[in-house]
UniProtKB/TrEMBL annotation:
<keyword id="KW-0274">FAD</keyword>
<dbReference type="InterPro" id="IPR024935">
    <property type="entry name" value="Rubredoxin_dom"/>
</dbReference>
<keyword id="KW-0285">Flavoprotein</keyword>
<dbReference type="InterPro" id="IPR024934">
    <property type="entry name" value="Rubredoxin-like_dom"/>
</dbReference>
<dbReference type="Pfam" id="PF00301">
    <property type="entry name" value="Rubredoxin"/>
</dbReference>
<dbReference type="Pfam" id="PF07992">
    <property type="entry name" value="Pyr_redox_2"/>
</dbReference>
<dbReference type="GO" id="GO:0016491">
    <property type="term" value="F:oxidoreductase activity"/>
</dbReference>
<comment type="similarity">
    <text>Belongs to the FAD-dependent oxidoreductase family.</text>
</comment>
<dbReference type="InterPro" id="IPR050260">
    <property type="entry name" value="FAD-bd_OxRdtase"/>
</dbReference>
<dbReference type="GO" id="GO:0005506">
    <property type="term" value="F:iron ion binding"/>
</dbReference>
<feature type="domain" description="Rubredoxin-like">
    <location>
        <begin position="10"/>
        <end position="61"/>
    </location>
</feature>
<dbReference type="InterPro" id="IPR018527">
    <property type="entry name" value="Rubredoxin_Fe_BS"/>
</dbReference>
<keyword id="KW-0813">Transport</keyword>
<dbReference type="InterPro" id="IPR023753">
    <property type="entry name" value="FAD/NAD-binding_dom"/>
</dbReference>
<keyword id="KW-0479">Metal-binding</keyword>
<protein>
    <recommendedName>
        <fullName>Rubredoxin-like domain-containing protein</fullName>
    </recommendedName>
</protein>
<comment type="similarity">
    <text>Belongs to the rubredoxin family.</text>
</comment>
Length: 471
C-alpha cells in the first residue's frame, strides 16, 4: 500500500441486503481480507460472509446518528410521550430504528427488548466455532451504545404483554407505553416437538442461548444429537463437528435440507461431510427422551422410522440434545391487538409492500411476519422491509421496485457452501448443468422455459462466480 493510500481515511461499506458493515481498517479475516484492505482492492468475486451477495451490493456507509429533518427541531426522548414503539431488539428491530432516523424521523422511539438488546449478527451463531469467533467478538455494538447513537429509549430485559388497541398503549413488564405507530419485530420462537422436554433441550435462537451452549460444551468433545436437518440444523452440525464433537443429525426427511433444496444438493452435502464426525439419520422421528442409566452419555432418545439402518424403538445415547425443528411466532401480542394471523405459516399477516398489518398503525417484519402465506425467515428481506415500514410511518413514498420472489438462500456449511438464488416463482424442474467432484450447478425452469432458480454448491477454494448469469 502506498503512503498516499495509507494517508486516506478508512471507509466503511454496508451490504444493502443484510446490513453487514465492511470496515477497511479491520478487514474481514473470515473472508481472507487482511486488516487495512481497501474496498477497491477486494476481488470482484468476493461474497458477503453473512448473506452471500457480491461486492456490487455494497455501498458507502456513514454511521447514522439521531437524524433530524433540516427544518425540524430536535425532539427530546420522552418515554411517556406517544411516539414509535418497537418490540424486539434483534436485527429487524434495530434496522427499523436505523431506517427511521436515516429518513429524518425526530419522534420519540422506544424499544422493548426481552433480551439485553446488544447488536449482533444472528447467522454467525451457527458458524462461530468453525471460524474461531470469541463470544465477546460476536457483539457488534452494545445496546446502550446503539440506543445513544440512535436516540432510543431502551427497555432491556422487558417483555411486551398485551396491546391496548383502542387506547394505543402497549403493556409491558415495566409499565405501559403509548404509541402512534407500533412495530412488531419480536421474531419467532423455536417450535419444539412435544416429545422433547423444553428444560433438557438446547434451542439456539439468540446470543444468550448460544453463550449457555458454548459454556456447556467447554469441557471437551461430546456426543450431540441435533433434531432437525434444515438450514440451522445443518450449519450447527457442520460447525460443532469441526469443533470436535460427534454429531447425530436427525430428520423426518430422507436427506438434509429437503424443504429448502433439491435432492441432488442434499446428497452432495452428505458426501462433503464424509470426513467429518457427522452421522445423518434420515426418516427418523424422536418418540421419547429420558435420562440415561449408568455412566456415559446423559440422555437417551427413542427413535422411530423406516429408513435403513434405523429400526423403530432404536435408542440413541447422547450428552446433549439440540432442537432445530423450525420457528413459530408467539401469537399473544397479535391476538391482543386483533391482528390477522396466518396459523399455517406461523406468523402475522402483513402487506408485502408496506409491512402494515390488518390494524392501522401496527407493522411487523422479520421472523414474525408472513407475506402471501409465506414466512420469510432470512436475513436478506429485513433491510428492505425496514425501509418500507419507515417510509409508510413517515408518509414518504414506498421504495421502488418489487421484492424478489424469494430471498437469496446461503447455506454456510463450510464443508460445502451452497447458494440458491431465485429469479421467479412457481413450480419447475431442476436440471444439472455442472456436476464435478468439486462443483454442482443446477438450474430450475418452469414449463415455458423461464428461469426460476439457480443453485451452486462448490467446495471451498474455488471462485463462486455470478449466480445471475449461469446458463
Amino acid at each position: 500500500m502506498t503512503d498516499a493510500l495509507q494517508a486516506l481515511p478508512w471507509r466503511q461499506f454496508i451490504c444493502r441486503v443484510c446490513g453487514l458493515i465492511y470496515d477497511e481498517r479491520l478487514g474481514d479475516a473470515d473472508s481472507g481480507l487482511a486488516a487495512g484492505t481497501r474496498f477497491n482492492d477486494i476481488p470482484d468475486d468476493w461474497a458477503c460472509p453473512i448473506c452471500g451477495v457480491g461486492k456490487a451490493d455494497f455501498e458507502p456507509h456513514e454511521p447514522v446518528a439521531m437524524a433530524r429533518a433540516a427544518s425540524a427541531p430536535a425532539v427530546a426522548i420522552a418515554p411517556r410521550q406517544a411516539g414509535i414503539v418497537v418490540v424486539g431488539a434483534g436485527r429487524a428491530g434495530w434496522q427499523v430504528v436505523q431506517a427511521l432516523r436515516a429518513q429524518g424521523c425526530t419522534a420519540p422511539i422506544s424499544m422493548v427488548a426481552a433480551c439485553s438488546g446488544d447488536v449482533y449478527d444472528k447467522p454467525q451463531l451457527s458458524v462461530a466455532m468453525a471460524r474461531a469467533l470469541p463470544l465477546a467478538g460476536l457483539v457488534r455494538e452494545t445496546a446502550a451504545a446503539a440506543a445513544r447513537r440512535l436516540g432510543v429509549h431502551l427497555l432491556a430485559d422487558t417483555h411486551a404483554v398485551a396491546v391496548d388497541l383502542p387506547g394505543r398503549r402497549l403493556r409491558t413488564t415495566r409499565g405501559t407505553l403509548r404509541w402512534q405507530a407500533l412495530v412488531l419485530a419480536h421474531g419467532a420462537a423455536p417450535a419444539l416437538p412435544p416429545e422433547l422436554p423444553a428444560a433438557q433441550v438446547w434451542r439456539v435462537n439468540d446470543l444468550a442461548a448460544y453463550r449457555r451452549l458454548r459454556a456447556a460444551l467447554d469441557g471437551g468433545p461430546q456426543r450431540l444429537a441435533i433434531v432437525g436437518a434444515g438450514l440451522v440444523g445443518c450449519e450447527l452440525a457442520n460447525d460443532l463437528a469441526l469443533a470436535g464433537h460427534q454429531i447425530h443429525l436427525l430428520d423426518v426427511q430422507a436427506q438434509p435440507l429437503a424443504a429448502q433444496l433439491p435432492p441432488a444438493a442434499g446428497q452432495r452435502l452428505l458426501a462433503a461431510w464424509a470426513g467429518l464426525p457427522i452421522q445423518f439419520i434420515g426418516g427418523a422421528r424422536v418418540t421419547g427422551m429420558a435420562a440415561a442409566d449408568g455412566p456415559g452419555p446423559r440422555w437417551q432418545l427413542t427413535l422411530a422410522g423406516q429408513a435403513e439402518p434405523l429400526q423403530t424403538g432404536q435408542v440413541l445415547r447422547v450428552d446433549q440434545v439440540l432442537c432445530a425443528t423450525g420457528l413459530r411466532t408467539p401469537g399473544r401480542l397479535a391476538a391482543s391487538a386483533g391482528l390477522a394471523f396466518d396459523t399455517a405459516a406461523g406468523g402475522i399477516t402483513v402487506d408485502g409492500r408496506s409491512g402494515a398489518t390488518s390494524q392501522p398503525g401496527i407493522y411487523a417484519l422479520g421472523d414474525c411476519a408472513v407475506v402471501d402465506g409465506r414466512a420469510s425467515r432470512y436475513i436478506e428481506p429485513i433491510a428492505r422491509q425496514a425501509a418500507a415500514i419507515s417510509a409508510h410511518i413517515l408518509g414518504l413514498p414506498l421504495p421502488d421496485g418489487a421484492p424478489p420472489p424469494m430471498p437469496l438462500l446461503r447455506v454456510k456449511t463450510s464443508a460445502l457452501p451452497i447458494t440458491l438464488k431465485w429469479h421467479g416463482s412457481g413450480a419447475g424442474t431442476w436440471q444439472t448443468t455442472v456436476d464435478t467432484a468439486d462443483e454442482l450447478r443446477l438450474l430450475q425452469h418452469d414449463a415455458r422455459g423461464a428461469l426460476l432458480a439457480t443453485l451452486l454448491a462448490r467446495r471451498p477454494g474455488g471462485e463462486i462466480g455470478n449466480l445471475g448469469t449461469v446458463v
